[in-house]
Amino acid sequence: MKKKNVLLLGIFLLVAVTSGIVAVTYSRYLTEANGKSSAQIARWHILVNKEEVTQTKEFTIDDFTWEYKNASGAVLENHIAPGVKGSTEIELDVTQTDVTLNYAISIDTTALATTFGKYPQLVVRIGGEAVDLSTGSVIDGYSDVIDVNAESANKVVSVPVEIEWVNSEENNESDTEIGSTLESIEIPITVTVSQVTE
Question: Using an 8 Å Cβ cutoff, are 91 and 48 in contact?
Fold first, then answer.
């Protein structure tokens, strides 16, 4: 019995020592490291006429420069009448934006079709292109892409907006109608800016 106990004790010690050696051998090269991964987020900061419009926001353009061609001195300042042309600019500033983007300027003529649509002497231009006010729909007036990766990228873009009341003798009757029934001309302009993903 004693021999048996010694033999069992010897086997137990042999297994214990062998297990310890094997465990130490396998655990010598264990390394663990912890860290963090990060990525810088591309900025999206848009200014329209120096106002931050990153979220949807309405803005008013009322800083027209008026040119009184044949009506100089005959029309009150900051008023439009036959022969008067007004111009301003929509300035888009994306200097604090880190993605290539597309911008589009459109006019919603839905409300204008019933009032101004019947008066062809009232002409609106965006980016030099005339807009048909009689359509009764949203018209894309001007669009372009600003590639922030291009070395020559202009990150401040100005798009001209003009309104002109063309003076013509054949329009005298409708000119009188405009001047006696309408108080102001309000043109709904939308500037949409979206990221280019391709």
Answer: yes
Which tokens in the block code for residue 85?
A: 């042309």
Would you state the pLDDT for residue 37?
87
pLDDT, tens only, 85-127: 989 899 999 988 899 999 888 887 777 777 777 788 888 888 8
Taking residues 35-56, report their average pLDDT: 84
Residue of 160, 88, 155, 104 lying closest to 127 (CA atoms) = 160
The domain in which residue 107 lies consists of 47-195
Distance CA 88, CA 65 (A): 6
In a domain, 29, yes or no: no
Q: Tell me how many domains the chain contains.
A: 1
What is the residue-wise DSSP string for 101-170? Answer: EEEEEEEE-TTHHHHTTT-TTEEEEETTEEE-TTS-SEEEEEEEEE-TTSTT--SEEEEEEEEEE---GG
Query: Could you tell me which of 165, 143, 141 has the C-alpha nearest to residue 67?
Result: 165
| pTM (2 d.p.) | 0.70
Q: What is the mean pLDDT of residues 132-152?
A: 79
42 within 8 A of 98, measured Cβ to Cβ: yes
